[in-house]
Amino acid sequence: MSTQTQTLASPSGDARSRDVAHAHKPFPKGRVAAWGITLAIVAYWAWSVAHNENFGWPVVAQYFFDPTVISGLYVSLGLTVVAMIIGIALGLVLAVARMSSDRLASSLASLFIWFFRGTPLLVQLIFWYNLSTLFPTLSLGIPFGPTFMSWDTNSVISPMTAAIAGLALNESAYMAEVIRGGLLSVDKGQFETAEAFGMTRIRALRRIIIPQAMRSIVPPTGNQLISMIKATSIVSVIAMADLLYSVQSIYNRTFEIVPMLLVAVQPEADLGGGEPVGGAPQEVGDDRFHRRRADRVVERVVQRGRVRARPAAEPDHAVVLAAVRGPYIPRSR
Q: Looking at the DSSP assignment, which residues form a beta bridge with residue 139?
């Protein structure tokens, strides 16, 4: 009787074991093993580095806040800021010229971008630093005519000016492509709408196109800023007293090469080792902000009566605002 009861009860037990309500995720043995092995390797590496006297951690602590090192860090940060400002400003001009319908402006911009992106930055810095070997004097005047002013090249091209010129011109070539990509990401209908309201190309770029393109320009610009912080170490080859050059001047006296290199690496790793600026979660808010800003600009232009008369029929105000705002697409919550 008991055997018959167990036989009858077994189907219900099998059904219970197959019920998804009682299912559970299997234990991730492989992932736990991988984490364990990784943590063991990291712990062993950290212990080896901390207890290795050849790293010279007391020397690192001694020179970390040395006035020479701090001065070199300020020079590196100053070069980064100046080179990025000049690079972004010149890159914007190059991007607009590259997209221009004028063949001369477009060709010159393309040639500039091709040259400065195609040659190594180190070669450019050495070239600017030794410019006096090609041109002993720099003159200002009329070509094949009289000269108004002239300067000695060595007095003009110092290590500082050579570093700024090399970093800024190289960065402008990369920023030109970054900005051009951002401008091309904006719908062409935005240009057409601005022209329908009588805006000039410069005004349309400044008030409508560039604000909408910023969401595509800012993230790669942040990456370029991080790269620029690291690229300033190259100027040490032209005797520019940046962070690396300051550290080299110390270990040339003390022969503590590895500890001083650790002193130079730590600030740049803290400043340039972050995540890229921007991200996907911010794009929705940026899109709404720039569209509202474009709406306000168009409304102000209409209210101030700055629309030029055209032979063709003027577009309807609601239609133009809809073109600037773009189609309304409800977002799922």
A: 150
Helix, strand counts (H, E) of the chain = 15, 2
Q: What is the pLDDT of residues 43-52, one digit of tens each?
A: 999 999 888 8
Which residues, in sequence order, are CB contacts of 184 under 8 Å at separation 6+? 99
User: Do 149 and 70 contact (CB within 8 A), yes or no?
Assistant: no
Which range of 58-67, 169-178, 266-275, 318-327 scores highest in mean pLDDT? It is 169-178
User: Which residues does residue 152 pair with via DSSP β-bridges, in sequence order?
Assistant: 137
Mean pLDDT across the chain, nearest whole number? 80
CA-based radius of gyration for the chain: 31
What 3-state class would DSSP assign to 139?
Answer: strand
Give the position of tokens 């720099």. Answer: 138
Nearest to 221 by CA among 82, 85, 118: 85
Domains annotated for the chain, with CATH where assigned, are: 55-306+313-325 (1.10.3720.10)
pTM of the predicted protein model: 0.72
The tokens describing 25, both together, are 């995720």
